[in-house]
């Protein structure tokens, strides 16, 4: 289950997020779904490939800077996958 804060301004301010609430909400949902992929629907080869791509690109987020080393691989996977999905969708779909 994904529970979203009714006031998305709070986490947006906490992590200094500079995007609209719809995009940020989409990113959170995609991030949580990516955890499901990481833990239940992927193999080590896929996880390592995606994390290596993120590292190669120098990918980071304000959130990743707060993550403990023991969770960094999974969180990098989730953040990177969410970023890829949201960026792809935003190039193909603009809300009315």
Provide an overview of this structure.
With 96 residues, this protein is an all-alpha fold. The chain has four helices and no strands. The protein is globular, with a radius of gyration of 14 Å.
Helix content: 55-70%
- What is the SS-derived class? mainly alpha
Computed CA radius of gyration, to the nearest angstrom: 14 Å
Main sheet attributes: strand count, strand direction, barrel closure: none
List unreliable stretches of 5+ residues.
none
Straight-line N-to-C gap: 28 Å
What is the general shape? globular
Strand percentage, roughly? under 5%
Number of β-strand runs: 0
Keywords:
96 residues, mainly alpha, 4 helices, globular
List the helices and strands and how they pair.
Elements: H1 9-14, H2 21-41, H3 44-57, H4 72-92
Helix pairs in contact: 2-4, 3-4
Quick structural overview:
The chain is an all-alpha fold and 96 residues long. The chain contains four helices and no strands.
């Amino acid at each position: 289950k994904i529970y979203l804060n009714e006031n998305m301004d709070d986490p947006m301010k906490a992590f200094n997020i500079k995007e609209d609430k719809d995009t940020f909400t989409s990113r959170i949902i995609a991030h949580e779904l990516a955890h499901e992929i990481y833990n239940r629907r992927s193999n080590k080869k896929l996880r390592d490939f995606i994390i290596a791509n993120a590292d190669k690109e120098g990918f980071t987020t304000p959130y990743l800077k707060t993550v403990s080393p023991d969770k960094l691989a999974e969180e990098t996977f989730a953040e990177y996958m969410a970023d890829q999905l949201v960026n792809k969708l935003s190039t193909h779909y603009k809300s009315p």
